[in-house]
């Protein structure tokens, strides 16, 4: 490699976002040269790794934080519908790739797992009733069930009901057609496919600097970590999909669009069991309500996971704090990310989110017994010896300027693009991976507006609902759900 070499596309980071964008571009523009740089020895080792996330195909079927109760007691389905709509785009794209032979047998990365919500107490039950009623009117949520009958819940998943006080007021909702996704496997499979199409994937390569050249290209300075050899490469387009490492690289790029953005890292742990007697009694992803002051990503849930063909149960997350932005990065990530332009918003966020700080401190101080008590709220029969604690991936929540509030802590994802469309990056966390396809379509639309008309026929072939909303067309919604379920073999 020489410093004069210029490639069409550089994707920084070996996660699901880079893999999805590379997959799209390799088909829309097969003549473009694509280079992927990942600093670790293998792709999909940070947030996309199967054990660093919960694997929920986020479709708002069970996640209450996508449909909060308003102060007047009403609920709105708008955000839940939007999230589900985005997941259907991902499902359609994965289905297309399976049909084309670009992805192998779908059970390698996606499996059916009913999505449930489980709540206790009168107020929470009334809220869940309203939520289910509101979603029943939506074409993408027609199959949702609701019950307050503990025996019925026991039929759905025995672990929630076994040895629970029969007089306790509980309720649950269930959608049988939910999914569990091994995003680590999916990421590797997508990269394997784009490599077959001609892309080059360079692991153990860390991008340290990006600089805009006079001719409009970007010069990237890299270091091959095996041998510590410096390298450079020029790129016509750069995507920074480096997870928690994206903020620093976008700051180094000097684009004005990154000004005012900061990151707040949150780590986490899960309890995991592979005991076959326990695993056999639970086939669902069951979400509850987040504790007061807890971030949405800390909603407790008891999940079926299928990773590398093996089934396990996961419970958590238990939030923690470390200044690292990645599991394998440095303790200086947070302090080194502070700039004059984001210091004000970060201070404002700290002042306005004392509940979050208090929650994180309580989580950090929580004993194993206290963590087990949280698990037993879902599974009364849980025994300590059956469960091991594992550390999940780092999540970096977006902090940014706000004209009215000075600074806000944003949950979700944020696409940052340079004004000329030659660079883009992604900040934030959940629902992230589940909505990778629509997020990357957004990147394409922002960065290549002059090519979208040319690409549209291919995009419609890959994603039949492209440019439309399934939620406004019941027949199209039903047809799409049935078609993707058939291709992906998502049988109940």
What's the gist of this structure?
The protein is α+β, with helices and mostly antiparallel strands and 492 residues long. The protein is 34% helix and 25% strand.
Report on this model:
The chain is of the alpha+beta class and 492 residues long. The chain has a single domain (6-488), classed as FAD/NAD(P)-binding domain (3-Layer(bba) Sandwich). Helix content is 34%, strand content 25%. It has 15 helices and 20 strands. It has helices at residues 16-28, 78-99, 122-136, 150-156, 158-161, 183-196, 246-253, 276-279, 333-337, 340-352, 354-365, 368-378, 436-447, 452-462, 474-487, and strands at 6-12, 34-37, 110-112, 115-120, 145-147, 170-175, 179-181, 200-202, 205-212, 218-224, 229-240, 262-273, 285-287, 301-307, 310-320, 388-391, 395-402, 406-410, 413-417, 423-428. Strands 4, 5, 6, 12, 13, 14, 15, 16, 17 and 18 form a ten-stranded mixed sheet that branches. Strands 1, 2, 8, 9, 10, 11, 19 and 20 form an eight-stranded mixed sheet that branches. Helix 1 (16-28) runs parallel beside helix 6 (183-196), helix 1 crosses helix 13 (436-447) and helix 2 (78-99) crosses helix 15 (474-487). The radius of gyration is 22 Å and the shape is globular. The mean pLDDT is 93.
